[in-house]
Amino acid sequence: MSSYLQPEPTAPESAAPEPRWRQWLASEAACSARELIVLCVTAALLLFYGLVPLRIGHATISAPKIGLVGADEPRYAQIASEMLEEHSEICHTLHARVIPHSLRVADLKASMKCAEAGMITPILYGHPWLEKPALYYWRTMSFYKEFGKSDWTARLSSATGAFALVFLIFLHMRRFRPGGHLDAALITASSVAIIAFARGASTDMQLAAPFCIGMLGWYAWYETGKKFWLFDLYFFGGIATLAKGPVAIFLSLSIIVLFVGLRREWQVLRRMIWLPGIALFLLISLPWFIAVQLRNPTFYKFFLFEQNLQRFATDRYQHHQTPFYYLIVLLLALMPWTVLALRALWDSIDIARAEWRVRHKPARYLGHSRAGDAFPEFLVLWAIFPVIFFSFSGSKLPGYILPAIPPITILTGDYLARIRRNGLPKWLLIAHGATCGILTFVLLLCPQYMVYQQIVPPPGTLFSAFAIATACGAGIVLLTQRLGLKWIRPLTLAPIFILLFFLMHQNGWLLDQNYSARPMARQIAAAAPEVKLLETYHIRRDTDYGLCFYRNQPLRHYLQEESATEKQSVITGIPNEEHILVIRTQDEGALTRLLPRRTYKQMFVNGWQELAVYRVAAAVVAAPAVHVENHKGSPAAKRRALRR
């Protein structure tokens, strides 16, 4: 009874309403805005820092300190440059622009000719170069026209393609798999393969980005049945075909057929045959292939059989590797997320196997037409098929399996979202920290190796790198345990940003000196600006092509070289004109044999690449003997006789 005599609790005083800005910060819209800002800023730093020049006042924030490297980068950049030159020259001759001056028939015809000028046949050193379709060249031409011809503008096509891929992964995952969308996008952007190929003037990212976007669109259609998403497959599939040819069609169809075959949903293949989509695909990809064939009758034979079938079946282009080559490439390409990515892949394989077993017991469907979530199964097939397929290729390059990286990084982001409440197993977290430490250790020693060319650096440098790498790995493990799994992404990204600054800003000049022809081309231009002709003798292909790009001239060799079979229109022979000669330091003894009765002088030695640069004087051509008749008369008559 006493309980009834106690006074009733008084209601608390009404709290003051929170300000609107606090309410907005706690809203879903504010969360989405924050995620979008984090995505754009982080992806831009990962993909564009050290690539695009950026200055604020007198402070240099980002500078392109690394010139074009390898043989492909300067070659593709030069092709885009020559195509743009032809386009500009023809348009100038026609006094026309792509947008017509008026609607008169003459102006419309002139604009059409201007639009197709330099856009059909890729040109290298004035001759057709038909190894790859034209997508990369078109995009690079547009960047050249907007920002000028340079090595960093030649790389913008890949960087912008990678950024679009990361952004659309974020949007797709937020729409269909919310929770891991930001992790999936930023794990993709921070993987070694994506960072590296986003900074390359090559066709690999031109294929991988639209191919992956199209595959995500196909699965969105499979899950929702809405034709809007099927549009992505045909549109981006057409763009991917313009990047590298029929390999895009083959990969996408193989993965889709394998997926629907394992699920025994063959009617999906019939439903995905959408006439507007097929028309769109053909409209995007077919006109260029027809036009280039009409102008170059050998195109299909050379491109389809030699550049695709023979490249796959043989080692004609000397890119032979072991059968397990792509397993090693995959482990390195996924760094620093390799351990988590492999765990996520294995977890998704388990899910796919469980789904496969359930599909054989229809009673457990409980009325559903599908056996649960098919997304992990689709991503697993998408990730594994390119790796297995290209492992049988006679020619192997790392970029071939680039389309297999995004599905694994997406699985990794989704995996982290699913286990966020329970946390990572301790052994897995320690393994991830160790992987980040190893990556840090190796990259910190890269400049030391480039300077001294020693596999084992001095003990002091080795200890410093080991200490920093250990602190990095241990910090990721301890802070993740303390703060929670949601912090594993920012904690892993932090050393990546530091390493990017260390390599691109602090030591970019070392990479430039060791692997690019840009410093040597600049030094030659400063020492002998009036000498335009440059010849080479048995130097590396990458330096050869690089010098030609930076000096805007064709390949010129003293002698015919065996490797010249892969090169277009090589000009061979020792010219009589004054010229620059680039030769390996070990071959300098051959100069007396190569240049008898010629005067030459060493300009400088590039010790980084073991090359010597000479200035060779013009050949002295003996004047022919002149028979002078004994003319009687004035001196003018004698001079006329001499002129004869």
TrEMBL record:
One cellular component term from this protein's GO annotations in UniProt: plasma membrane
Gene Ontology MF annotations: pentosyltransferase activity
InterPro entries: LipidA_mod_glycosyltrf_83, RgtA/B/C-like
Hydrolase listed as a keyword: no
Chain segments annotated as transmembrane: 36-56, 152-173, 205-222, 234-260, 272-291, 324-346, 374-394, 400-417, 429-450, 462-479, 491-511
Positions of the Glycosyltransferase RgtA/B/C/D-like domain: 132-289
Subcellular location: Cell membrane
Pfam families attached to this UniProt entry: PMT_2
PANTHER family in alphabetical order: MANNOSYLTRANSFERASE YKCB-RELATED, UNDECAPRENYL PHOSPHATE-ALPHA-4-AMINO-4-DEOXY-L-ARABINOSE ARABINOSYL TRANSFERASE
Record-given protein name: PMT family glycosyltransferase, 4-amino-4-deoxy-L-arabinose transferase
Originating organism: Terriglobus roseus (strain DSM 18391 / NRRL B-41598 / KBS 63)
